[in-house]
Structures are given as structure tokens and as C-alpha cells.
Specification:
10 helices; alpha/beta; 6-stranded antiparallel β-sheet
Amino acid sequence: MKIFNLSILFCCLFATHLLAQKGEEVKINIKADQAGVKIDKNIYGHFAEHLGRCIYGGFYVGEDSEIPNTAGVRNDVVKALKDLKIPNLRWPGGCFADTYHWKDGIGPKDERPTIVNKWWGGVTEDNSFGTHDFLNMCELLDTEPYLSANVGSGSVQEVADWAQYVTHDGVSPMTKLRLENGRENPWKVKFWGIGNEAWGCGGNMTPEYYADVYRRYVTFMPGGLFRIASGASSGDYNWTEVLMKNIPSHMIEGMALHHYSVIDWSNKGPASTFSEEHYFKIMREALKMEELVEKHSAIMDKYDPEKKIALVVDEWGGWYDVEPGTNPGFLYQQNTMRDAMIAGTTLNVFNNHAERVRMANLAQAINVLQAVILTDEEKMILTPTYWVMKMYNVHQDAELLPLEMNEEYYTFGEDKLPAISASASKDSEGKIHISVVNIDAHKTNEVTLNLEGVNLKNTTAQILTSDKLQDHNTFEQPEKIKPAEFKKFKAKKGEISMSLPPFSVVVFEIK
């Protein structure tokens, strides 16, 4: 009798353990009849700085290269980024922008002066990739250029001349110079950053001082531009407060924000051989984006209740130690399923706050930080982050569908984080897309999507996942991680129920 009772007790305890591992069901109520706010496609923007192998060897190999190219720009990169539907591309920095003098990068390439890139490795910059090269490449990519103007070491006249050189279609000294350099018609350049990280590498300014400098610069720029102020670093709410208070609303269209997922700037940890503890801490930093967006938005709301000024998160992503044996100043790192988790959760935050967040730029596009593309001579691979952004591009310019959900947690030791993240939208054709992320390193989570009144007959899904968090694509195994069809769900009577594997991203389409 005692043996029988012990057996029952053991079975009960085991069953309780299994239930604890499985966790509670996450229910996400999607309000499919409340579409309204547009998810601006520019949330899915990218960033190309003269840093390491982002430009040279990444985007640009030169016209004489044996690697197939158009005007020196890699054809494989162009195809990959067009498939990604990148809406905008920020250039030339970053910190590099505030030491960049645009006239050094125009005219015959063999006559352009060289400079030393003091920020990134102390390498010599030959200026062979300049304004014409970048703006022509943007036309090739069918993307909008976002130029970051030199405020730190430049002048008002220099920036005003640059704007006139690229945008003016009448008679002027700058249009004459542009014509001499082979371009008759102006380019379409709407987005302009007025300096970069003015609180740091852009001049170590106070917010009060920078607000005055900003006002001075934009006074002499042409009209009709989308002008973006150099905004705060992460939780520096005073910076946003001062700029919103001191810059008149008619002089600004966007307020920048930079936030990287970093635990310790002096010891960032490895990109691909990390522990679960390091993963957990990095995800905690990534998920802070929700709080940052909400708090900076609340400050902006005080001065701009109609939300005319966009919050522009023009630098975001994971930042780790460089790969062993590479130049520390080149910021080259691998890209794993951890980065897919950062991308999926961050883009969900941006989507869900689309009324204020209307532009963002992942740092950076190729061979630098959380890149979507890595290259090695003629070889090219697409990273897990690339695939997340490709799966999510269905949200671009779609209408946000509000959602509500309960929380299930990913626990590590005594700490916990929300395990499930989601966002939803309806496009111009009436198709509904729902992106769901499970960041838990171990646990499959049961998730139910409630879409009352929606016909779910034509529902399909894609998933991005792998065996280990540290998994990544290599030049030897370029397709180890890529999206696959997801079938582990049931759709009936206005509900989609699924078992969401650990560290996975799923995107549903309902036609």
C-alpha cells in the first residue's frame, strides 16, 4: 500500500513538473476590426557607414573587380537587399559622418584626397565611394537615401551646399558643379540627419548647445526636407526633453534615438560562443526598447501631442566583441539565432508603437555589428537577422492591428523576461499578417491567437528556428538557418493555436 501511494505521489509530482515546463497558455487577442495606424515602411531601414568592410568589400568592390558588379556595387548585394525591400539607407555614418567632407568624395576618383578614418581602425579612406556612388546605388536598390550631415567638424555652408548639390534642379553654383561631375538631374533626397550622436563622437555637446546648433544649420537648408535631430542615447530622457522644448516644431520632422543591446561596453562578450546567461542579459537589454520608446514618446507627446514629429531609432541592434583575429576597429561579428530574437522582438516594438516610431535603421547592413549580409571576397551569406527582416517586410505600410495578451515568462535563475512578443497588421489587399516570437531558450510555449470574425480557412505560416541559440550561417554552410513552412498550428472558429518552439520566429498570413 505504501509503495502504491508513493508511485501515485511520484506520478503527480512528475506531471506537475511537466506542466511547469510547458507553462501557461499565452492568449493574444487581435482586434482585426480596429486597423488605423500605418506601420511606416521606413521602420525597416538600414545603415551603411564607412566602417570596416561595410562599404569597401561589402557594398562596393570597384568597377574593375572580378566580382559581378554595377558601377562597382556588388550585384549579389543589390539583389539581396531588393528582395528585403529595404525602404531607406543611412550614410555615411555614424561617427564617420562628423569627420566626412562631402566634396572629398566627388570628381575623378584618382584625384580625390585621402583621409584617415580616426574612428574605425585608423585606416586610410581613399574617398572612392562618395556622394554620386551612394545616391546612384540607392537608385539601383530602389531605396530612399538618408544622408547624415557633418555638424561636428563641418560648417553650415558645407551642409547647405551639399543639400543644394544633390537636390536643386535650377541654376546654381552647386548644380553647375554636379553637372561637371556627370549628373544633370538632382537625386531625390528627403531624409537628412543634422549631425550624429552630438552628445558623444559628434561633438560632446550639451543638449542646450546642440539645440541651438541644430536650429542654425536647418535655417540654411532647403525647404521640403525631413530633418532629423541627433537624439538621445538610450535612457537619456533629458536630451529629448531639452530638444523638444528648444527646437520649434516647424524646424524638425524627426527625433533620433540610439540603443544597442550591450551588457558591458568594456567586455561585450562573444558573438557566437555565448552562454545562456549572456543570452538572457542581452535579451533584457533588447527588450528595454519598449520602455525607451514609451518614455521618449511620452516626453515628445508633451510638446507634440499631434505626433507630427517622428521618433527615428536610427541605430539599434546587438553589439558584441569582434570575431577572433579580426581588426577590433572593424566591428565584424557573427550573427546567430540570438540576433534573430533581437530583430523579431525589436521590430514588434516598433510596429506596436507605429503612431510615433516612423523610421529606424538597423546597425549595420553588411559585415558590421548586427549585419543582414556577410561577405568574404566573392562569397556572400544571408544572416538570421536578414531572414527575420524578410519575413517581417509584409508589415511595411500596412495598418497596425492592436492586440492584447497575457504574459508567460522565460526564467533564468531568479530573473524573468516576457517570453512571447507579437505584432499584427492588415495590408492594402486585406491580408492579415501576425509575427510572433518566443525568446525562451528551452521551453515550447502554447500560444492562441484570437481573431474573432476572421475567416481562417486560408492561413499559412513560416518559421525561423534552429537546434541551438548559437547556430549561424557560415560560408561553408550558408543555408543552415533559413525560413521553413510552419505547420504546427490549428486554425478554426476564429482561433489559431500553436506550439511555438524555443527561440523561434513565426509569421502568419491570413488571406
